[in-house]
Amino acid sequence: xxxxxxxxxxxxGCFGARLAAAGNEVTFVARGAHLEAVRRSxxxxxxxxxxxxxxxxxxVGSISDLGPADLVLVAVKLWDTEDVAxxxxxxxxxxxxxxxxxxxxxxxxxxxxxxxxEQVLGGVCFxxxxxxxxxxxxxxxxxxxxxxGPYRTGQAATSRxxxxxFRDAGIEAEASDDIxxxxxxxxxxxVGLSATTATVRGPIGVVRSHEQSRRLLHxxxxxxxxxxxxxxxxxxxxxxxxxxxxxDTLPAAMxxxxxxxxxNGNRLELPxxxxxxxxxxxxxxxxxxxxxxxxxxxxPHVLGRPAGS
Length: 309
What we know:
N-(1-d-carboxylethyl)-l-norvaline Dehydrogenase, domain 2; 2 domains; 10-stranded mixed β-sheet; globular
């Protein structure tokens, strides 16, 4: 397949490199020093599953430089989603199926609102990876999983083809017959992990070992479940308890990208995590005091480290 990967960071870099190693024609869209390093030496992925290096030059600096594609993977930060969709519409890859591996529940709404509804597949990924230095991505564990599915019956064949491409690349990939529910299931956990590790300024082991912060973790997830159910998503009413039990199985040192970005003074995806829960809750009349407090506490950091801090 000809695959365009928009965003060559931890997520896009890891999955894109594996797909390239399996014989697919992968082109990354990157920028800055990362772009120049990949253009010069290829993208290097260090992984417990084995290191991978892509061919030099397998990268462009703009979506407008892409050629025709059989699949577009979107792996940019959430604030770039609208711009990506708009640029895709005028690119040579404009007719390709699009699969977003971004966080959150807002991503596909944005993409489906700007691209044709038949193009956008639903999907989530499970991986921990980051850019270690320009041209180098570090995959932190053996986990590299994608779950995807169609939003419309007419997408079933495309969904199967994309699923096969991931599996052929040695990536764990599953089909979902209710992809909206699958996306929300991850979102509940992601909001809980992000909200608590960022506000506590520590990993999940610290969060879950103290009564008050453990209760905060549960309540943030329970509010997110309530919003999902108000949206018509078929989550069990006790799904937050299930995710809390899951959090007890995680490595104590595990944290979130929101926490990492906060510690590094970077821009935060908060408006699409706890902030996104608040926005949806306000429209639906669902009380979410815990997520609102998290969003308020972290608000000064949304655009990066505040001046003078």
